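All the exercises in this workshop are built on plain-text protein records. An example says more than a description, so a record of this kind follows:
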Amino acid sequence: MSALSNSQWLFPLNSLEATPSICSLEKELYDRARGVEFLFRLGSSLQLPTSALCTAATWLHRFYMRYPMEEFHRQDVAAACIFLATKTEECGRKLVDVARIYQTKVLNLSEPKQIPEDSQEVNERSAAILQTEEVLLEALCFDFFVESPHAELVDLFDSCESPPPVQEFAWSLAHDSYRTPLSILYPPRIIATACYVLAQRVFDGPNSPSLDARISATSPSSHLPTPPSHKPPSPDATRVVVERYAFNEVELAGIADALHILLEFYSSQDENTFPYLSNIASVPAPAKTTTRPRFYAPANQINPLPPQPANHGHTSPEDSLGRTPSSIHGGRSPDPTPQNPQP
């Protein structure tokens, strides 16, 4: 079975155009990233392990494949994902503690102690978390299992000789991948490989082999004849991951797509606020293997509403794009097209 089709929770790229949210795809993914950022801040303050944060972030993306952002605020969903993850990942936290830190983050306070446990705000946050958790359980079909690219990276670090900065950078990229929908598009090994290859490329510098060369099916040097007096070249360090896993063409295309999404995400960030991202954003993306709409744009260029295509009797979006899987408690996701489009 292909590594790209071994989970019911992996969606095709075009499914992102058919989510229940009414807003544009760019706006939805922008708000998802903000939701994951809030989730990470909440989990870090609760001192949760990385596994719980990654699990919760994956659930947030799965949730919004079934329910619209307009009906469920990203912060409520993030808090519900965190609270559920503290139970499934065996790092339990009290509901009141999650609610207090939630309120602390909203008010931008430094200490949860500044908010009494029995305050009205904490009670309201607690109620919102529990209500959202009920919907989250339905959205997940009570399937809590999540695999992380971090586990794949640990194996790579153990088997591949790479400088510590490459390992640290790849680990950070894997964290950032949860700010994108990669966790519901590709399996962990594909994401881990994309993060590792991109980390290598940034560390090696602009004069090193391109991303295309690093993820090609065969090494460029393999096409050159080996003189009789020379030994075959040693394995290329820039291709060690691709050659280790012997990816097929479909999987290599998935790695290229994952790299495209990561680079597009980084390119949309404000370099004045995050100047250190320029080294990543300046990396040329590999050749495109699929056609898709733009996922990310600078915040001031995001169009909040989706384009309204004219209906010329063609197949409806639900038929052509496909819907998210049916829940055991309900039907498929509704058509994202508004009933009364605004002029």
In short: The chain has a mean pLDDT of 84.
